Amino acid sequence: MASLQAETTFPRTGLAGAALPGAGLGSRTAEGLTTAAAKARIPRLRLLSKDLLVILAAIDLMLVSGSAFLGAIGYQFALAGQLRDIEIYIAVSLGLAAATVVAMVFDGGYSVEQQGDEGKLTRKAFFSFNSAFSVLVCLLFLTHVTDFYSRGSLFTQYAAGCGGLLLGRAAAARLIEAAVRTGYLEAQRIGLIGTAQAIAAFRIKQPDRMAVRFTAFELPDWAVCPSGVADEDELRGIVVDRIAALRGAAVEEVVILLPEQARDLIHHIVRGCTHLPVGLNLLLDQELYDPQTIEVRRFGWNSAVKLCRPPLSALDQVAKRMFDIVTALAGLVTLAPLMILVAVAIKMDTKGPVFFRQKRHGYNQRPFRITKFRTMNTLDDGPVIRQATVNDSRITKVGAILRRTNLDELPQLFDVLRGDMSLVGPRPHALAHDWEYESKIPAYARRHNIKPGLTGWAQIHGLRGETDTDDKMRARVEHDLYYIDHWSLLLDVRIILTTVFSSRAYRNAR
User: Fold this and answer.
1) Which residues form a coiled coil (predicted)?
2) How far apart are CA 43 and CA 176, in angstroms?
3) What is the pLDDT of residues 136-183, one digit of tens each?
């Protein structure tokens, strides 16, 4: 019962499906592939992760040292017509290569998961080589080798060594991608244990180019819901069966794809996997947790998993606040004449106040009153608020112009100075809309982890105006969360400039 009956490789992705008997599960193979075809796609070459690391490191060592040495002596021969101090050039080239390889190891440049991603590997190789070269130059200076070491030789060593490394890494990435795609290489085997639906969702999110083979070990749906288990011994038998199959498949890592409510089943699997020489991973719900910030923290003798981090550090908050104050003040001084003209136009167009103030949620869902130029003949601020639509009769003549040009947002510069808002951030919505969408979109409340903005990442991508469907709001939330997770001052500057000069920021204005 514990044996692994069949394994198939999925085209392009290198994903594998495992057929496991018992527990009401039939034999499962990849769609469109026969058993014979599946056997034909089993890798001809099986490398462990450590084997691939050693091979790639050795190749880089030879490429950097060889190209750097040839560059240096080539320069000397072209300049003087003879070769001198060969042993020094050999030592320097080997030292540069060794330092580069060490830097690549610490930067994860040889990890199996990243092989095949040519762009990322090229960047890692470039920064690792430059770090190693900087250390080399410092050592040459401190040991006075530079007194007789030609600067021209140093430059040619840099150019030749860096060029050789980058070309080698690009070639290696393409070779690994081709070998994995055609079934000639398998560097790491990872076991996926969960329901068929969870495994299928995991596969969809995998990149096309990975030197990794995923093998599926499915669990019946009833096993995930403890309340539906008729016999505890039957559940244990299912787990024992899957653990035995994992051992037979010789996996190196196991990923548990189960929801948090299946805690008892997760407990059984974790206990069983501790008897295997594998790395054990529990996939968390990425709609709730930021995958880039999950880490293990220690508090004395206690260990905890840090699921998310504050969106901005204390230093980030100070930098963003200073930028807001300086830019908002400059904006108010520059735009004061225009704002006065807008105020006069509003008073001449319709009766009523110049400004419109409405309760919105700010940082940490603290309510504040946002300030805008009035563009409608109503001042709604209650539990039910109707969004502006195309040809909305409530919009005044001047208001229509202000909305199309974003000029109605200018008074929010005062909200920025008061500290209720930031220049850039998720746009605040009316409280009634917040309450509605918090119940529909799980990650919606994360928008309030930073101050709301006068403009934002969603707005410069045309995601503004009426949100008459849940998908429109979901797209806006996704862009807001991207901004929170990737914030920088340069990103703020980019968003502000795009808001002012790009037509996309004025799209869908109502």
Assistant:
1) none
2) 13
3) 888 877 776 655 667 777 788 888 888 888 888 888 777 777 776 676
pLDDT of 279 above 80: yes
In angstroms, rounded to a whole number, what is the distance separating the alpha carbons of residues 24 and 37? 26
Q: For residues 377 and 374, give the distance between their C-alpha atoms in angstroms, rounded to a whole number.
A: 8
Q: What is the mean pLDDT of residues 445-465?
A: 87
Q: Can you list the alpha helix ranges (DSSP code H) found in 107-215?
A: 118-142, 151-181, 196-204
pLDDT value of position 177: 72
Question: 185-186 and 45-46: which strand pairing?
Answer: parallel
387, with CB counted inside 10 A (0-12, 13-18, 19+), is middle
Q: Which DSSP helix (H) or strand (E) runs through 480? A: helix 470-485
Residue 223 sits at φ, ψ, to 5 deg, of: -70, -20
User: Scanning the structure block, which residue is given the tokens 């009833």?
Assistant: 222
Q: How far apart are CA 260 and CA 270, in angstroms?
A: 13
Choose among 364, 388, 14, 66: nearest CA to 215.
Answer: 14
- Please give the class, per CATH, of domain 6-44+186-283: alpha beta
**DSSP reduced 3-state for 214:** strand
How many CB atoms sit inside 10 A of residue 104's CB?
A: 25
Supply angle C-alpha 119, 172, 64, rounded to 5: 95
pLDDT per residue over 322-372, tens digit each? 999 999 999 999 999 999 999 999 989 888 889 988 888 899 889 999 999
Where along the chain do its domains lie? Answer: 6-44+186-283, 49-181, 314-506
